[in-house]
Amino acid sequence: MRDKNHQIISGKALIGDDLSPLQVEIIIEQGVITAIDESNKAPDVWICPAFFNAHTHLGDTVAMDCAISGNLESLVTPPKGLKHRILATISQEDLVKGIRKSAQIMINRGCAGCADFREGGIPGVNAFRRAVKNLQFHPLIFGRDGGERAGDGLGISSVRDVSDIERVVNDAKKAGTRIAFHAGEKDDRDVDTALSYDPDFIIHATHATDAQLKRCADNDIPIVVCPQSNWILSVTSSRVNPPIRRMLDLGCRLFLGTDNAMFVQPDMFAEMAFLHAVYKIDAEDVLQSAVSGSYLLQESFFIKKGAQANFFILDPSRSNLIFSKNPIASIVKRGTSISSCKNVFNS
Length: 347
Description:
The protein is an alpha/beta fold. Helices cover 31% and strands 23% of the residues. The protein has helices at residues 72-76, 82-87, 92-108, 121-131, 165-174, 191-196, 210-218, 227-232, 244-249, 268-279, 283-292, 327-334; strands at residues 6-15, 20-29, 32-38, 46-49, 51-57, 111-118, 138-143, 153-156, 178-183, 201-204, 223-225, 254-256, 259-260, 311-314, 342-344. A 9-stranded parallel sheet has the order 12-11-10-9-8-7-6-5-13. Helix 7 links the parallel strand 10 and strand 11. Helix 3 crosses helix 4 (121-131) and helix 10 (268-279) packs antiparallel against helix 11. The longest helix is centred in the first third of the chain and has 17 residues, at 92-108. The chain is globular. The model has no long low-confidence stretch (mean pLDDT 93).
């Protein structure tokens, strides 16, 4: 590795969208990968594309591990859910501090960006921007209550929660902003309406039907799943919901997120391990879902020639991972044991 304008990084890298493990030398110029050359002299370190947490509520950090009681509506549904009542009492200083602390946790755990749903209108979006200022982090901020005008998109909790949904969505479309919906979290009755607005993606689809999933696949509408959150909030008690295996079998684009920081630590290693263990999804599919959300940006974090360099490096010799026969499986199943990552993140 040389200066920040010219770097040579060698190791076993997971290359391209299919995460092919190859011993390579990666050449980086001004933050861009200019060459990937196979090398039988590369050291035995692992180079993994950075994660993108495709659904967060980092503002909820200030309500971390408060008592969880009640149903989905009483906890997180606007405007009177527990999280909203707590956020209404928090100072801007603490809100910014909480978001920044969670973003730093994510960065330390190999995550280079997120798609965050941000309450509080334009001040809420501005608080998020202040929180991540000067961090090597790529956020997309989906605002509400007018925050979409200052953010990167419009984030709808559910079509059932917005009385003038038609106007709100049409205004966003006229402004050319992105649109995302929570849909299918507690049942399937808000999914079709959400899909009728042709959103950029939907979140959860916990109870989506095969017909609704097929519609997502046919219209290339990505689905962000947040399995740990679904279990904690008691909207599922079975690996049948969300129907992640059916999503993959039907050809849906699958992104992974951690959801509310008040309930779930924004740690993609932990989310991957849960998805793999509980839903029995292949490690390769799990890792792809943890990176693929970066396609919501102008380019993805997958390691390719011509792409911005956004990856992290693990040294398996520093732990029992030195005995791993499959780096992808070990990253997915055992990444929670990794104390920190050596990041190469570029904006």
